[in-house]
Amino acid sequence: MTDGAHEGPTHSGGISGQPSVRRGTITNVTSTPAEEQRLRDLALLRRVRDRIDREYAQPLNVEALARGVHMSAGHLSREFRLAYGESPYGYLMTRRIERAMALLRRGDLSVTEVCFAVGCQSLGTFSTRFTELVGMPPSAYRREATQATAGLPACVAKKVTRPVRNREAKPVQPQLA
């Protein structure tokens, strides 16, 4: 056919959000390559977050997490912070501290045993991060939590004692001897 007549669907959809057909390929009018890449990145970030939730007790680091989703460590850190408001390492440590709090509430493990059980390899780093998130050292938390949560179901105790982010925790006052 000539005279500008069309054979088959080759029109461009004018309604936003409606698919348009052009040369046999269907595309979404509002979709751009940047938006599609962002959606792919978000799916990968969910995989990273899920892996952290599952494997928090394993020796994880940002480089290993990034390799698992074929990103650079820098790109993963930037995108994770944009999506979740904290770095992958910060999220990992929060998960570890949450689990440590549960173990310390039980009262049958020492602070050192809890530190290694949640995947931390340095008692000093664990104690520092715990104090930043919870507002007290792990040993003090263990003493107080076993008394404060006595008789509470574990699910209630977990909710009541959930750690806060660094900027929400009470500042730790240095104690002079």
UniProtKB/TrEMBL annotation:
Skewed-composition ranges (Polar residues): 25-34
PANTHER family xrefs: HTH-TYPE TRANSCRIPTIONAL ACTIVATOR RHAS-RELATED
Top-level lineage group: Bacteria
The HTH araC/xylS-type domain, residue ranges: 46-144
UniProt region (Disordered), positions on chain: 1-34
SMART domains in UniProt: HTH_ARAC
Protein name per Swiss-Prot or TrEMBL: Transcriptional regulator, AraC family
Source organism per UniProt: Pedococcus cremeus
Record GO terms (molecular function): DNA-binding transcription factor activity; sequence-specific DNA binding
Keyword annotations: DNA-binding, Transcription, Transcription regulation
A Pfam family recorded for this sequence: HTH_18
InterPro entries cross-referenced by the UniProt entry: AraC_XylS_family_regulators (IPR050204), Homeodomain-like_sf (IPR009057), HTH_AraC (IPR018060)
